Every structure is written in C-alpha cells, then in structure tokens.
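Format notes (please read before filing issues)

Several people have asked whether sequences and structure tokens are stored in separate files. They are not. Every record keeps both together, in the order shown below: the sequence lines, then the token lines. Line labels are part of the format and must not be stripped during preprocessing.
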Amino acid sequence: MKIGVISYLLRHHDTPTAMAFLQNLGFSNVELDYRHADGLCDYRAQDAVGGARARVICLEHGIRPMAYCVGGLNKSHLPVLRNVFEFAKGLGVEVVVGVLDPDILSELDVLCQEYQIYYAIENHRGNVFENAETMLQAVEPYSRYVGFNPDTGHFARAGLVAVDEVRKLDGRIYHCHFKDSDQHLPLGSGDVDMLSVAKELKRQGYDRLWSIEHYEYQGISDEELNVGLAQALAYLKNLDAVTK
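Then the structure lines:
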C-alpha cells in the first residue's frame, strides 16, 4: 500500500524544506498542497511548467507526488479552474483533491475529462458532501473522473461511522485522508476504527494513496509534528501489514 502525507501540515515552510522534513521521517509519497510559503505550488500563480518544477523538487528528496490538494473550489475559482489542471498535469499526478461547491460540478467534470485527471471531493459536515448517500447523488450525472476523498475524521465529526461511509462509496474513491476524531492524540487513539477502514479499502481494491492528514490543528510545532508524523507513519505501516 502507498502511504503518504498531505504537505498542508508543513505549509508554513517553503517546498524544498517541507520535502526535506518528510524525507527525514522516511516518507516516500506526498499529497502536495498548494499553500506552501514560497508559492511554488500555488496553481493561481503557476502553470504546467511550475508543476513540473515542483515535481522535480519532490523527487530530488526521494518523494513521489501522488495527488495535488487545492483546498477547496467554488464559483470564485472558475476563472482559474484550468490552472488547477495545468499545474496537476505538470506535477504528474492523476488526482486533484479538495472540498467542492456542487454548483461547479459541470465545469469541473469537463476539465477532468479533458485532462484525464480525477477530482476527489472531500467530505465535510454541513453540505451535500457530508454523507455517502448525498455525495453519490450529487455526482451521479457526471463522469467517473469525479469521485471522492473520504476523510475519516470529518465523518467522525459529522457523527457518522467512517467505515460504513467508505463502504457505500465503493468504486468512486480516488484518495483517502486518514485522520482521527481528536487530532491532539496519536493517530489511532480516537473514535475512528482505522483498522476497519483499512480492511474495507483493501476489500475494494483501492490502490491509491493512504494520506495522513492528522495533526493539522493550529499552533502545533515542528517538533510535535516530527514526533506525531513518525508515529502516524509507523501506525499506517502496521495497519498495512496486519490487513494483508
């Protein structure tokens, strides 16, 4: 299984520093976030050439970019929507990840098909992308390039059982965020049954990134992140081993 981490956790660093941080922890895959301090990953200012440059930075540190996180997209992003896909193309990823306003699904799907890049919508409490049933209903009219990024922690916040929601999304999962109910505790110490989620993903034949998005709370230090991400990486490696 491909285990990685979202670089959003290190967005306060420039891209090379963030990749060096992850390399030192033993990560070999990343979900690259657009918000790094140097602007090198920001689709609003970069194009496919910039994406290719960011890919080189990752690979120079022994880390493969496997997804590109754009945070969220809504109607205000329509003028720069193509930029997202240009950067992702240069970065060499098959999946773009983010929250989404359902009002732009049509425009998004057109670009997904043109670039043959998947968009994985992250579930969030309080909109149509909160639970599996309404998520599936929202994307039903669109191509298979539009799917989901189940975030286990967000399902827990919405009072849902993560593994049940993941099971319902079978066949439309293109990315996955591993996050627990309390991000101040080590991954696996909260209410989310991570073992069941891992087993279900494997049952579905999911072969994309297991992306750690734990420890994203404000005020966390690099020292705390270093310890926490080392634990999270070891924890997911163990989940992988016990679910083979």
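For reference, the curators noted about this record: The two ends are 9 Å apart (CA to CA). The mean pLDDT is 98.
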